[in-house]
Design brief:
alpha+beta, D-Maltodextrin-Binding Protein, domain 2, 2 domains, 5-stranded mixed β-sheet, disordered N terminus
């Protein structure tokens, strides 16, 4: 009898010990971008941690949001970690779903591996910090990038003809005025060639392309510091008028009014446009000769800007998108989850990701001579990161984006003037923010430099000496 009890006790001990050391870290992510899914697939293969099992769920973008939203609303722990897009932050923080990572950073991180000082401060500001707390480890910083046909710009005949017509050298545009001039020169319908193309086909597409290129570089803002909508400001209206003018549309392929991402990238891949303003996450696709017949002829440049009429200095700005990984506040495996995220998003794995996949997010990788030689767009990418501005991540942004986008489309279709549409947009957006008590509660909107200052304060609280602060 004692023998049986002893054996039973040993089995129970082994079972409990195994239970204690075997933990599953469940991660929800998306296949929306190869840069997101390929990174976690690489990390999953390489990660070796005794007693930790990984369970990775890669979902379509909209499915991911819906599933995480349900999880956060009911407060369960279906996932320990989750990839999140920047515009989701506010809603998920309000739902109590994001773990404040401060304690984990201070007590469980390897400072040389997590290396928060190796992210540009704009990346920390827009991808990591929300409302004065560090919730998200940045994974991808999507910014505008001007792509262009090198073969067209380097062609001797084009150079001669351009010089003869305009009295200046043909070059990659530095300003939006030059962009139109170069676009006009390359618009040759008889050759099935147009100057450029943009996305106008849906409300969120049209406002995204306006912000990636023309509005932020004109120093237009969506709100003033007191959250008063600024869609009807002179700078915003000027950017919209430029972007939606008949002249501007005439340099784009037929049907541009309905274009979304698939059409505009395909036109660049097939050499139908001389220039294409996109985001950096499209570069791996554009560089792949199996997907892009014109891959070897595509170059990458800074987003153009607006020249100051007095000083001549070029003002640039572009939208930032994408996000990173947060930890579920309801997770029972926070330490193990944090350790995996530190490995996947850390400094050691970043060079391998750059080498194999052609993208970066860390300063050390953007500036590494080895990668600068291999990927000449890395320094360009970093310069665009430093001037990037995010859309609001508040819970109401989807409503605002829909309304503002629809008003921009009304201009495109000739149903409203720029003044009328942008005045209506501001009035409608004010009603939305009133519904969310933003004026009653005296909420403040932080502009780029203020967001950087907030991020620097958070870094100091985490005992991180950031070179940009």
């Amino acid at each position: 009898m004692k023998k049986i009890i002893l054996i039973s006790g040993i089995l129970t001990f082994l079972l409990l010990a195994n239970t204690a050391i075997s933990k599953t870290v469940r991660v929800a992510t998306t296949d929306a971008l190869g840069a997101i899914s390929s990174q976690i697939e690489m990390a999953e293969k390489l990660y070796k941690k005794s007693g930790v099992k990984l369970d990775i769920d890669i979902l379509p973008f909209n499915d991911l949001y819906a599933k995480l939203q349900t999880m956060c609303q009911v407060g369960n722990d279906e996932y320990d970690a989750m990839w999140v897009d920047g515009p989701w932050y506010g809603a998920f923080v309000d739902a109590g779903c994001f773990e404040d990572l401060s304690s984990l950073v201070k007590n469980n991180s390897d400072p040389n591996e997590l290396a928060l000082d190796d992210f540009p401060i704009r990346t920390i500001a827009y991808q990591g910090v929300w409302d004065g707390k560090f919730y998200v480890i940045p994974q991808f910083h999507a910014v505008g990038m001007l792509t262009y046909r090198k073969d067209l710009f380097n062609d001797p005949k084009n150079k001669r003809d351009y010089k003869e017509k305009y009295g200046s050298e043909l070059r990659v545009p530095q300003t939006w005025v030059e962009y139109v001039q170069v676009g006009t020169f390359f618009t040759r319908p008889e050759e099935e060639l147009w100057g450029f193309n943009h996305r106008y086909g849906s409300g969120n597409n049209i406002i995204a392309d306006l912000l990636i290129g023309y509005a932020y570089s004109r120093d237009a803002q969506l709100f003033d510091k007191n959250f008063n909508p600024a869609f009807d400001s002179e700078n915003f209206k000027a950017a919209a008028e430029f972007f939606l003018s008949k002249k501007f549309l005439s340099m784009q392929p037929p049907g541009a009014e309905s274009f979304s991402f698939a059409e505009v990238i395909q036109n660049m891949q097939q050499g139908k446009v001389a220039m294409y303003l996109t985001e950096n996450w499209a570069i791996p696709t554009l560089r792949d000769p199996n997907k892009t017949p014109y891959a070897k002829n595509i170059g990458y440049a800074r987003v153009p800007g607006w020249a100051d009429p007095v000083s001549g200095k070029i003002k640039r700005g572009t939208m930032v998108g994408a996000g990173g990984y947060a930890i579920n506040a309801n997770s029972k495996n926070k330490k193990e989850t944090f350790e995996f995220l530190q490995f996947m998003l850390g400094k050691s794995l970043a060079p391998r990701i750059a080498d194999e996949q052609g993208w970066a997010i860390r300063t050390s990788v953007y500036t590494d001579p080895k990668f600068v030689k291999k990927y000449d767009y890395f320094p360009v990418n970093l310069s665009n990161v430093k001037i990037s501005v995010a859309r609001p991540g508040d819970a109401w942004w989807a409503e605002v984006e829909f309304i503002a986008g629809k008003e921009l489309q009304s201009i495109l279709l000739g149903n409203k003037s720029v003044d009328k549409a942008m005045t209506d947009a501001s009035a409608s957006v004010r009603k939305i923010l009133t519904k969310y008590d933003y004026y009653k509660n005296n909420k403040k909107y932080l502009h780029p430099k203020e967001k950087e200052a907030e991020a620097c304060q958070v870094m100091r609280s985490l005992r991180v000496r950031h070179p940009d602060c």
